[in-house]
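Quick start: read one record
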Amino acid sequence: MSPSRTVLAAAIAATLALACPQPATAQPSSVDTIAAMANTIVGKVSEASRGVSLEGAIVTVDGRQVSTDREGFFRVTGLAPGRYPLQVDYLGYTRHLSDVEVGDTRGAQVEVTLRSTVAATDMGVVEVRASRDAQAMALNQQRASTNYVNVVSADLLGQFPDNNIAESTQRIPGVSIERDQGEGRYVTVRGAPKEFTTVTIDGVQLANPDAASRGVELDTIPSDVIAALEVTKAITPDMDGDAIAGNINIRTQSALDREGLTLRASAAGGKYQLGDGDNQRYNATIGNRFGADGNIGVLISGSISKQGRFTDNVETLYSRIGADTFAPSEIQIKDYEGLRTRKGITGRFDYRINPDNLVYFVVSDSNFVDREFRDNLTIALDNYATGSDETTGRARATFDKELRERTYDKSIRTYNLAGEHFLGEMWKLDWQASQSRATKTTSPRMQYIFRSSVRPQFAYDYANPDFPTWTILGRPDAPASGVNLPESWYAFRRLNDRYEYGEEDENALRVDLGRQQTFLGDSGDIKFGVRARQRDKMFDDERYRNGSASDFAGLGIRYSDMLCDSLSNNFDYFLTGRRFCRDIFDKYAGPLLESGNHARLIPDSLTGDYRAEENVYAGYARIDANWDALTMIAGVRYERTELEGSALQFDEDSGDVLPQTASRSYGNVLPSLHFRYEANPDSILRAAYSTAINRPDFIHTAPYRVIGEADDLNVIAISEGNPLVREAFAHNLDLSFEHYLRPLGLMSAALFYKRIDDPLFVASRDEAAGPGQVFRITRAENGEKGRIYGAELSWQQTFDRLPGALSGLGVYANYTYAKSKAELPFDLGETELPGTSRTNYNVALTYEKSGLNARLAYNYRSKFIQSFDISNPELNVYWNDRASLDFSTSYTLGDGWSVFGEINNIQDTKQIRFQGQRNRVLEMEGFGRSWLAGVRYQF
C-alpha cells in the first residue's frame, strides 16, 4: 500500500476505534448539566433529524438579539428575574416560540430543536435534503454576521465538481481564480491582485510555498477536508490588516458540531479525456463525542486524489523589431504529461469544559506533488526579412528539441491551539497560539536540449493566430509545411540540472479580551486585543550545466536513440515528431552529471537566493453597539512591521560574492466603521468603511541584483530588489443590501470602492552605462495611487413551494462587475491592476428531490491583465476570457449510501494568453474534459 493510502487508512481505523460504543462516557451533550449564572439564559439550538448544531440562529429575548456559535450555543445576560418570551429564527426551518423563566438566584438553560420546512414525514421516514440544509446553514451564518461576509458550507461546495480550495472559492460572489494547466491555483477577490487577499485556517494565516508572491497557492489544499469557507470583504479591527481585498477563512470540521458519530467516506475514479490519464479521489471523515456529557470531540478528516493530466500547449513570444513593428520572436510547442497527487489530513480535538470554557487543538497538513514531463520544440527567430510583421514574414530559425523532467513537492502544515473563556457574567477571553509552515522543493528538474545544426529561412503566417502556418524554406529535406524536422538535424546541446527549495514559517500569538458595555447604545460589547506574527522566508536556487558534446558522444548514442514511438500531436495540428522516452534521465544522465564539465552556474545559483524575516506586532480596540435594529462596529488597529532581508550580489568583473542586507520598519493605523441595519428579520442593509494594507512580496524587498547579458542594442538587463518599496494602503467603502427569501434563499446587491495609495508595480527605467550601453533596471516600484470599484449581485433560492417534482428545483447565481485603474511609476501612464476582470459570474441550476441531486454549473471570467511590459506596454500580457460548464449529480440509495458522478469542462474550452491584443497569442493551452464517478457513505 502506498504511504498516502496508509495515512488515510490509519486515520480511518484510529477514529473507528474511538467510535466504538462507550455507554459509560459517550452521552449526548446538554446545557442542563451546567447551572447558568443568575440573570443569564444559556441555550443550545440544533436541528431535529441529525442533531447538527445550528450556527447563526437569531435568538431574541426581551427585545435583545444574539446569534448562536458553531456549537449552537447562545447566552443572554443582564436579565432581571422573571418570565421572558424566547424566539429562535433560522432560515429553512420552522420558527421556535416559547417562554423562559429566570429565577432569583440562578438563570435558565434552554435546548431548542428545529425542523426543516421541507422535512415531510411519510410512514415515519423523514426526507432530508443535504445540500439544502447546507445552504440553510451558510445563509443563516451570513445573515447573523455583524459585518459583510459570504459563507459557503462544505456540504454545498461538495455538490460542485471542484478539485481544490481555489476551485471551490470561484463559486462565491466576487471571487475568481487563476489556473495552471486548467486547474485553479490563485484566488482573486473583487478584481484585486491575488496578493491583496489573505488566507487563513480557523483564523491562522497560512504560510506560503510560493517564493515569488504573497498570493497563496491554494491548489495545495484539497476541498474535502473543510467545514466551510468564509470570505470577509470588509475587515474588522480584530482581523489582520494585510487584506485589502478581504480574507478567506477555511473553517475545519469539529465533532462537537453534531451529536454522536460523524462518519463520511467516498471513493471515485474516472479519466481525463486528453491523454486518457487516471482521475482518482478518496476521502473520509470520522469523529465522535466522548466524556460523561459528550463534551470532548475528536475528528479526523483525510483526502487523497491522483490526476494523470495531459496538456497541449503552444506559445509565441512577440518582440519589437522596428519603431512600430512587432513580430514573433520565439515559438514553443509543448506536450505536458504529469501526475498530480494531492493529500490532506486534518485532525481536531475539542474540549468543551463547560458552556463557559472551550479549548481546541487543530492540526492540518496538505501536500501537493506534481511530477511532470514536458516535451518542447523551441523555435527562435532573428534576422527578419524586410516587410515582416506580426502577421506574416520571414526570418532565420534556430530549432531546439527538449525534454524536461520536473517534480515539485509543496506542503502547508498548520498547528493551532486556542481557547474561548467566559469570565463571570461580563468578560470573555479568547487566545490562540499557532504555527504554519510551508515548503516547496523542486527536484529533480533536469532538461536535455538538442539543437538543429541547420538554421534555415522560416516563413510564418499568423492570419489565424490560434493555428498559424509555418514553412521551412530552401531545404528539400524539410517537411512541405510544419516543423516535424528530420531527426538527423539535431545534435546534443546541453544537459541542465536545477534544484529549488523554499520555505516559510510563521509563529503567531493572539489574545483578545472583551466585555459587555452599557455606555453606548442599548447594549453592546467592547473588545481589546494584541497579536504577534513572526514570519521567516528563504529561497535557494541551484543551477548546473553540462554542454560538452564529447561527454555525450562518450555515451555511444544519438539523438534518435532517445526517442520513442509516441508522437507529439498538439491540438491535432502542431506536429513535431517523436517524443522523448521517459527513462532517458535514468539511463543516460549519470555520466554527464559526474563529468568535470558538469559545472555550477554562477551567478545564477547565487543571485536569486534570499532570506527575509518579517515581524508584525498589532493591537486593536473595537466597540459594538446596538440600537434596536441598528448595529455598529467601530474601532482602530495599529500594526508595526519590522522587516529584514539578505541576498547575494555577484561582481562580474572580480568574481566576488557580496553579501547584502537591508531592513525597514514602519507602522500603520487602520480605522474601520461598520453598520448593520435590520429593516426586518429578512432584509439587512450594511455599510462599511475600512482600511487595510498590502505588504510587498518578500522577493521585491530582498537586496538581490541579477545582471544579464547585453542584447543586440547594447541594452543590459538588470533585475533587482528594492528594500525601500512601500506597502500599499487602501481606504475601502462597502454598501450592501440582503433580502433573505422564505423558506430558503437570498437576493443581494453590493457596491464597493477601494482607493489605493502607493500601489506596487514591477517597473523598468534606463540608465546610461557607458559609451553606447544602457542599463535597463527592473525592480519593484510604487505608483502614486489607484482605485478599484464595482458591484455584486447574488441570487440563491430553493423552490420548495412549487408543486410535485418541481419543488426540487433551485438556482445559485452571482455576478460581479469590477474596474480598476492605477498610475504607473515614472509617469508612464495608467493601467488596470493585475487580476481585474470586468465581468465574473456563476449560474448553477440545481435539482434535489426524492434522492436525486443534480447541478449544472456555468462559470465565466472576462479577460484581465497579468503582467506589464513597462518598456513596451503594447506587449502587456493578458489572460483572455474563459467559460467552463460543469455537471455533477448524485443519487441516494438508502442507509447512508449514494452514488455520484462529475463532468468537468464539458465544452472543452481552452485557456489563452495574449500580448497587448488578441491576435498576438502568447499561449494557447488545452486540457480537455474529465469525468469521475464514485460511491459515498454518510452516517
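Helices lie at 3-18, 130-144, 154-157, 165-169, 549-553, 584-594, 604-607, 698-701.
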